[in-house]
Amino acid sequence: MNQVMENILTRRSVRGFNEKPIPREELEQILKAATYAPSGMNRQTWQFTAILNQEKITKLAGLIEKLLDRKGYNFYKPTALVLTSNLKESRWAKEDNACALENMFLAAHSFGIGSVWINQLQEICDEPEVRQFLNEVGIPTDHDVFGIAALGYAEKEPNQEVNKQGIIKIIE
Amino acid sequence: MNQVMENILTRRSVRGFNEKPIPREELEQILKAATYAPSGMNRQTWQFTAILNQEKITKLAGLIEKLLDRKGYNFYKPTALVLTSNLKESRWAKEDNACALENMFLAAHSFGIGSVWINQLQEICDEPEVRQFLNEVGIPTDHDVFGIAALGYAEKEPNQEVNKQGIIKIIE
Which chain A residues have a beta carbon less than 8 Å from that of B7? Predict the structure, then answer.
């Protein structure tokens, strides 16, 4: 099997990270991978904001804990969070950002770095405290966050067993 | 650079295909890649319907031509179309299906097969003639099509030049 297929088939969501830092060059490659995703009409109106600062990650988790009543929320203690944002009114923001996130997950996995999709922020971007936080990290006020990649080294290897339920049909 | 990164960075949308058929095994690998995308709450309520039948592809293009007034529409004459559908009311249908599509684009590229995202169907799934077509190819009536992968060998190699406009920020 080629390495691309192998990487796709062995990627799993990781929900627990240790504290080992991500090499800067690999983080930059992961972010570069995001920008190479397809984008509707090639508009590329997205932004990728990587937060390595643990105080800021904890602060954002605290906002989710408070606003969404998620006691003890911590994003699974990642080394980095990448917030993928896009213009609120972008017609394909969800699709474009999802492709960029999948590119990041696959790139990370190719470096042995674990990842998981975090989706709590999408509905609460305009809560004043969240918007204030987004401002602080440089996310434009006309952007919403359409998904987050939590990144880090897995605390333990994720289970490789799968239960694939998607139906495939081939019409010849 | 590892092969996974190289594959991500060299994938381009292909908008013109020749008639060389896709090997069955590679088509099956591409479809398998789709099912290994992440899915919100791991619900996997998606279906992947590959259409190889050129009459059916032409018929679907004709429906888009008629309903969306796209004269001469032909999906760029692909060898195969993969319709990615999901429950209409699925909360994360767009995101899940986008990740599955990106996996297919990347898997296809790893086999030297070109691809492009087609999005015309999403808004017109419930037009009676479109729903009739979807029924004929076995897509459930409670599904909408959230994106299509057109697949085939590129008529000419796509331009590798890029103009990446996405902004990257790193907050330390």
Answer: 4
Using alpha carbons, select from B68, B49, B78 the residue that is nearest to residue B136: B49
Q: Is residue A94 a part of any domain in this protein?
A: yes
Number of neighbouring beta carbons within 10 Å of residue B68: 13
By the CB < 8 Å criterion, does B164 face chain A?
yes
In a domain, residue A157? The reply is no
Supply the ipTM of this predicted assembly.
0.97
Contact A36 B2 (CB under 8 A): no
A170 contacts in chain B (CB < 8 Å): 27-28, 31, 50, 52
**pLDDT (tens digit per residue) in A113-138:** 999 999 999 999 999 999 999 999 99
Whether B41 maps to a domain, the answer reads yes
Please tell me the total count of domains within chain B: 1
Q: How confident is the model over B110-160, as pLDDT tens digits?
A: 999 999 999 999 999 999 999 999 999 999 999 999 999 999 999 999 999
B51 close contact with A: CB closer than 8 A: yes
Q: B105 in a domain, yes or no? A: yes
- Starting at the edge strand found earlier in the chain, the sheet holding A143-152 runs A114-118, A143-152, A80-87, A47-51, B167-171
List CB contacts (< 8 A) between A36 and chain B.
Answer: 8-9, 11, 162, 164
* Domain coverage including residue A122: 18-152
CATH code for the domain of A136: 3.40.109.10
Mean pLDDT per 10-residue section of chain B, whose length is 172 residues:
96 97 98 97 96 98 96 96 97 97 98 96 96 98 98 95 91 94
